[in-house]
Amino acid sequence: MNYALDVQHLAKSYGKKQAVKDVSFQIQEGEIFGLMGMNGAGKTTILRMLATLLRPDSGDAFIAGNSIVKNPEKVRACISYLPDEAGAYKTMTGKNYLQFIAGLYFKEVPRQKECVALGKEICGLGDALEQKINTYSRGMTRKLVLARTVMTKPKLAILDEPTSGLDVLNSLDIRKTIRKCAEEYGTAFLLSSHHMQEVSSTAHKAAVMKDGQFLAEGTPQELLQKYQAETLEEVFEKAVRNA
Amino acid sequence: MKNLLKKELSELLNKQMLLGLLVSFILIVMLGSVMTSTVSGTLDTSGEVHIIDLDNTDFTQQIIAKLEEKDYTVKTVSENKAYELILSEQNWSDAAVLPAGMTDLLYNQHQACQIDSVKALKTTSAMSIAFAENSSADYVISVMKELLSETYLTEDLSFLESPVSVVSYTTANGKNVQADSAEIISSLAMFDQLMPLVLFLLIVLTAQTIITAVAAEKTDKTLEILLASPVPRITIIGAKMLAALITAVIYAVVYGTGFLISMLTNVNRAAENIDIGEAFANLIHMQEAVRTLELQIPFLGWVGVIVHLLLTIGIALTASMILGGLVEDAKGSQTASIPILVCTMFPYVLSMVSDIRGMGSVKYLLYLIPFTHTFISTSCLRFHDMGLFFGGMIYQLIFLIAIACAALKLYQSDILFTHRFANKRTKN
Fold this sequence. Notes:
The complex is a heterodimer. Chain A is α/β, with parallel strands linked by helices. Chain A is built from 9 helices and 10 strands. In chain A, the strands form 2 sheets. A 6-stranded mixed beta sheet of chain A has the order 6-7-8-3-9-10, sandwiched between helices. In chain A, strands 2-1-4-5 form a 4-stranded antiparallel beta sheet. Chain B is 68% helix and 8% strand.
């Protein structure tokens, strides 16, 4: 089967501390995969390895068939990465920022324009896109950077805590955007989150992480059944406490 | 209050800041030692009086004895050879020439005499003029006046008011010309002061701009977005370096122009008090002196200086990219530029006050700093030290290649985000 993401025995240490231990999982096209775990569980390390920012100590991952170890340049052409609490260039207007990012991904002007048009539609910021980013609220900035992440229609979008620090309405908007992009453009999403509700309502599959390892993995329904729980929060608690 | 103060201090006095402070302290102490040894070296030699005694009479022997009485170390030669040869052979920085027939002129004909003051020009640094003021001729004239006063104590001779006049000669590059070395240095000062200042500003401003920019991108996590995009990393690094260079050039041009205007204003102010015709004649004379001493820099020499400049700026840019990449947060960027600042300050200050090429063993330490070679590049050309000029250029080129490879490696490694050296990858 051709996976959008195929992770095989990925491991990473920082000195003596093993941040990620032999992790393997797959994501199909248009699928949303949620990584749940406490701070320091290894979620961000996995995302950074897949974004080719960190090199794994062992194991490999294939994104649209390209190895993150052997072909990181090819991987970068088919992914889009949104770091936790990432900002945007404050001196640019929202529109200029989308144009700048489109220019990084596409050389052809028509494709850039198409990409920016999609970004404008996804973020839904309207006239505010003509204003400088330093005038934006946290929610507006987050919508803008999420739009730039998905407007290039990547094979895999890697989102680290996409709704961190946002209010309920802004969080709901972001989740809707993620689901819409997965359905309409076939983009696979790998997102990390502290919010079980977010994972439960957005992801097709989820995994619970602790100390760099997967404790449980499956669809939300499978996880609820396995742990005889009513919510993912309960699943998380049982998985982590029993580990 | 106590808690707040403790918190503020713990944030400000972090490990990175203290390390930067320690490095700065060590380097400043070293700079102070080098400066002290340079100045004391100059003072030591200023206690030495060199005389070319072509008269060789009892009176000239009295002059020497009187100088020795005053604790000066007097070195003499009596050969009638070209001044530049004598200074070169004796390794003297200057000499007072007592001409043949001087004693006869003073004692028998009761006429004023003329002695030559010869100085070997080894640097065109502006501050060297200050050090060059105590010449052998000054000491000799002072003693001559004393001796003549004692001899003619009872006689009324008007020539005693000004019994000795001085004609200045300057030697350089094996040539000799009748001109004052201080005036020659002043005529070259416009460029020889401006270029190091502009270079100093360029390096420091470029470093600060890049380090702050990279630190800000790391804090905002926009660097992660850029590095995960399909743009080659060398392009990302190159664009950032080029932008910083353009910004620094704008700064340097503005500051340099300001400095130039200020210098020209001073020159104009001075010109108001002198005769224009005399000033013009002096200017022509100085240009002729510079040409005779072969101190002028040919067109290809300027091209070489520009190559030196570009290499230095390239090194400063690349080193700043590395330091910026290693900075953990915006606070760290304040101290990260200290190594570049100090490595620029050392050769800049020392090249302004002295001749780095003649600094003994300290010069080899300074040569290790790549920027030194650009600060002394014009001096190398003016004094025909082509080995050092091209050697410095090759050293800077090798240094740039090495540091560029290191920067590229850094931006392709984990260190940028983990601030640790990566573990060795194990085979599956």
